[in-house]
Amino acid sequence: MAMEIYVWKGDITSVQTDAVVNAANSSLGGGGGVDGAIHRIGGPKIAEECRILKIKKYPNGLPTGQCVLTSGGQLPSKYVIHAVGPVWKGGEYWEASLLETCYKNILQLSFERAFESVAVPSISTGIFAYPKELAAPIAIKTVLEHKGQFPRKLIFVCFDQETKDLYEEILNKSGTEYKEGISSF
Ligand code: ADP
């Protein structure tokens, strides 16, 4: 069965899925943007799980491109996949391949956990300053190339209309069917 693609505009903390992806940073210590919102709405349990993961497994930080799982705390979603995207440094520091690796690892983890639905923001395009128009094709291409049976539903969460238009344009150009969704997947 082919993966269903959704493009949904809104705040990722209000989405109900098996897992939402956090645009985290290496320290797993919280931050702004998606990270700030997830910890604010998800409550202290997520931060505590991140703190323990950091001490036990990632004392030097979670490397760029990697991801780890915690519970969803008080979020409507069951789990959070904390993924570290690359910081944009002009494009000559393997940013594109690191962003692709990041999405691949999210998909691999979702496959291993047999998640039905996974919501992912536009990783790296906020505080990490990756140009949206360069990040969106990588996000979409990597998702469309994923071969696993899970996740069955992949929701691209777009925080603003510009990002949503961009995702829809790329999906339309590639002839990929997608749906809008209603926050519960
Ligand atoms: P990064 O540090 O990886 O750049 P950010 O969280 O700063 O991560 O931003 C990633 C993208 O997520 C940006 O396009 C930003 O506009 C968007 N974003 C910010 N807050 C939210 C939110 N609550 N829900 C969904 N997307 C968000």
- Could you tell me the number of beta strands? 6
Helix percentage? 25-40%
Question: How many H/I helices?
Answer: 5
Number of individual domains:
1
Please identify, by name, the CATH architecture. 3-Layer(aba) Sandwich
Quote the CATH topology. Answer: Leucine Aminopeptidase, subunit E, domain 1
Major sheet summary line: 6 strands, mixed
Gyration radius, in Å: 15 Å
User: What is the mean pLDDT?
Assistant: 97
Tell me the β content. Answer: 15-25%
Unreliable stretches covering 5 or more consecutive residues = none
The helix/strand order is EEHHEEHEHEH
- Oligomeric state of the chains present here: single chain
Separation of the first and last Cα atoms = 17 Å
State the CATH superfamily name: Leucine Aminopeptidase, subunit E, domain 1
Order of strands side by side in the largest beta sheet? 1-6-5-2-4-3
Category from helices, strands and their pairing: alpha/beta
Give the overall silhouette. Answer: globular
Ligands present: adenosine-5'-diphosphate
CATH class membership: Alpha Beta
Characterization of the model:
InterPro entries: Macro_dom (IPR002589), Macro_dom-like (IPR043472). Residues 1-175 form the Macro domain. This is O-acetyl-ADP-ribose deacetylase. Helix content is 37%, strand content 18%. The protein is of the alpha/beta class and 185 residues long. It contains 5 helices and 6 strands. A hairpin with a 7-residue loop joins strand 3 (67-71) and strand 4 (79-84). The radius of gyration is 15 Å and the shape is globular. Bound molecules: adenosine-5'-diphosphate (ADP). Adenosine-5'-diphosphate binds at residues 11-13, 23, 32-35, 37, 85, 121-128, 157, 159, 163.
